[in-house]
Design a protein that fits this description.
Elements (H helix, E strand, L loop, with lengths): L1 E4 L9 E4 L6 H4 L4 E2 L2 E2 L1 H18 L1 E2 L1 H11 L8 H13 L3 E5 L14 E5 L5 E2 L2 E2 L29 H8 L1
Antiparallel strand pairs: 1-2, 3-4, 5-7, 6-7, 8-9
Helix pairs in contact: 2-3, 2-4, 3-4
Organism: Trifolium medium
GO cellular component, one term: RNA polymerase III complex
Pfam family, one: RNA_pol_Rpc34
């Protein structure tokens, strides 16, 4: 028994494979392709749900977004961790969200220290009549030492040269 397999590499050619085999992602295009075509609707829907999840929770992980997507009931197909990870990486590259490492303090209290998490880039969002500051412009959010920083530690806002330069600006 033989079956025809859609391929993204050579769309003009027909490819056949024994029915007992499953084609590899290199041939089919992976988890964002269906029948050899990029599923743009699925990608857009996943992006919207992930951004909503992160903005509602303030901080989320890949697992948190996956759970949110499964609970949302928006998707008729199974959403995988690999898909969510790809979407989150795309959103970081699109500059819609920021990838961070959890410090375990403040908004990160529910996420274990050192775990990769994501926050929304709020550009002066208005809440309750007050305009909030763009929190992503603070030097702390891009600092390599953020996971070691604490008010009374060796690395702290009081001793940070980057924070002081930012304040002087």
């Amino acid at each position: 028994m033989v079956k025809e397999v859609p391929t993204i590499q050579n769309k003009g050619r027909k490819h056949f494979m024994a029915t007992e085999f499953v084609p590899s992602e290199e041939i089919t295009g992976g988890h964002f392709y269906s029948d050899g075509n990029l599923d743009k609707e699925l990608i857009d829907a996943l992006k919207k749900v992930c951004v909503k999840c992160i903005s509602m929770q303030r901080v989320s992980t890949c697992d948190g977004c996956l759970e949110w997507c499964k609970k949302s009931g928006v998707f008729t197909t199974e959403v995988t961790e690999k898909q969510i990870k790809g979407i989150l990486e795309t959103l970081v590259l699109d500059n819609e969200i920021m990838q961070m490492t959890s410090t375990g303090y403040g908004d990160f209290a529910s996420i274990p220290v050192g775990k990769t998490c994501y926050i929304c880039k709020s550009k002066g969002v208005v809440k309750g009549g007050k305009k909030l500051v763009d929190s992503t412009s603070f030097p702390c959010f891009s600092c390599q030492r953020m996971s070691f920083c604490s008010p009374d530690g060796a690395v702290s806002p009081g001793t940070c040269v980057y924070f002081q330069k930012w304040l002087d600006f």
